[in-house]
Design brief:
This protein is of the alpha+beta class. The chain has a single domain (24-222), classed as Cathepsin B, Chain A (Alpha-Beta Complex). Helix content is 30%, strand content 21%. It is built from 7 helices and 7 strands; from the N terminus they run αβααααβαββββαβ. Strands 1, 2, 3, 4, 5, 6 and 7 form a 7-stranded antiparallel sheet that branches.
């Protein structure tokens, strides 16, 4: 289902930077011109899209909702210790998040820098695996080679989290489920990262080139080898 509330460039009307892209082909033509060819694409199936507000309204719970989404995916592909009900998964993730400083209301620069920060997301992930009796499940934050890691993770059917400091997704975490690469002879490829952003029921994309030097990190959610 297409969102009718799109700008001419294929971007949601609420966005004006690197994010909220819902029609990637239209966006690439509008932003970069004609003759770009989709040279590579990948999407992880069986990742469910639900908004973070479906768990708590008016809450700064993007990290918890994103972890819940990925854990629900692993349940969908056979990790049966994880509950089938996303709400039950969220309850477990939230309880763990509170240990690391999560508060549904409190936010702000100082809190985001020193209390409930992106640096603890991997620990929340590790504890979540343990809570579901998967002691060999892991979480890993990555601050370098991010695009390469994203592509490798998607190719292995492992969705991951992208944490963004500024811009359209300021102080926000999204779930990465795929990518599209557009090529044109003599020019550097353009990469769009496919996401569920927790705000919309639509699949959206981030323009990796336009994201540029904005501080970001990724969190890999690594399942145990044995289901």
């Amino acid at each position: 289902m297409e969102n009718k509330n799109l700008k001419k460039n294929g971007q949601s009307c609420d966005f004006k930077g690197y994010g909220g892209i819902e029609d990637p082909e239209r966006y690439v033509k509008w932003k970069y011109g004609q003759s770009w060819i989709e040279s590579e694409t990948a999407t992880i199936l069986k990742v469910e899209n639900f908004t973070q507000a479906s768990f708590e309204t008016d809450s700064n719970n993007c990290v918890l909702a994103s972890i819940t989404r990925v854990m629900k995916y692993y349940n969908n592909i056979g990790y049966t210790n994880i509950p089938t009900d996303a709400i039950e998964i969220y309850k477990t993730v939230k309880n763990i998040g509170v240990k690391y400083g999560y508060d549904p209301i409190k936010t702000g620069v100082m809190r985001d820098l020193f209390i409930y920060t992106p640096w603890v997301i991997d620990d929340i992930v590790k504890d979540t695996w343990k809570a579901f009796n998967y002691t060999k499940g892991d979480g890993c934050n990555d601050y370098f080679s991010k695009l390469k890691t994203i592509k490798n993770s998607i190719d292995k059917s492992n969705p991951l989290l992208l944490n963004i400091a500024f811009g359209d997704y300021k102080n926000h975490t999204v779930s990465v489920i795929g990518f599209k690469i557009y090529s044109k002879k003599g020019l550097r490829d353009k990469v769009l990262i496919q996401i569920y952003d927790g705000w919309s029921s639509y699949v959206r994309y981030i323009d990796w080139t336009k994201l540029g030097s904005i501080p970001t990190s990724i969190t890999r959610i690594l399942p145990p080898l044995e289901i």
